[in-house]
Amino acid sequence: MMIFGPAVDVRPLFPRERRAMLDLLTALGPAEWARPTVCPGWDVHDVVGHVLNDHMRRLSGSRDGYGGAVFADDETLPAYLARTNEEFVRASRQLSPQLMIELLEHLGPRLDALWATRDLQAPADLNVSWASTDVDSPAWLDIGREYTEFWVHQQQVRDAVSVPGTTEPDLMAPVLDVFARGLPHALRTHDRPEGTTTHLEVLGPAGGRWAAIRQDGRWRMAPPQGEPDARVSMDQDTFWRLATRGITVDQARQRSTVGGDAELTAAATTLLAVVA
């Protein structure tokens, strides 16, 4: 739906992102696999175990139609994901780094093949809750969300072992583009007159400009035009870390330039592109 803006097709990028991840992991020594990451309580081995879980979960659910773990009584989606993610990571601590690398090499092309069968405009297998909770997501947004997951976890490993990130614009720009689709959801509690606009600018080689407009009683993605009622600008490193809570909202605001409607700029700088 146009609520989310034009489609982003990240499918050709999965093999390149995965190759960079596998090359990185193959070069790590035992001490580096044990380095702590920004994910609380998880070291590099744990983050890789989580990425492996993502592959298995999507193939099991989206390809094979297997429901998997069930919700506990009164369990919210964030609580369910936190629990099941932690359960898999704990179990994966029994796996050697080499085996996890081999499993990712084996499963990655199968996930690529699954995405290749999808009509990007069809309903998603899994809705993207950080983009909307009342409108079904299109498949391209679901697939894009998975690409951002893999890219971000690779950056977290790279940060942990002090290896520069895969920030080439053609690999990073789609991540920022998909994250920006969370802007209307970030503004959702702020009612404004029809036509009110908020602009988001991300600076850097992979950056861009996006806008949300108040239209038909809700916020929607729109091409950035004219003078906005609220504007937020930040660099690309700040934006992806804000969207995944690698930094705090306050830290992101300190690194940003804002103008116009203060409530809207405050909301825009709480944009979150993970389930929390």
UniProtKB/TrEMBL annotation:
Ranges that cross the membrane: none
UniProt cross-references to InterPro entries, sorted A to Z: DinB/YfiT-like (IPR034660), Maleyloyr_isom (IPR017517), MDMPI_metal-binding (IPR024344)
Domain Mycothiol-dependent maleylpyruvate isomerase metal-binding: 16-157
Molecular function per GO: metal ion binding
Coiled coil feature spans: none
NCBIfam families membership: maleylpyruvate isomerase family mycothiol-dependent enzyme (TIGR03083)
Name assigned to this protein: Uncharacterized protein (TIGR03083 family)
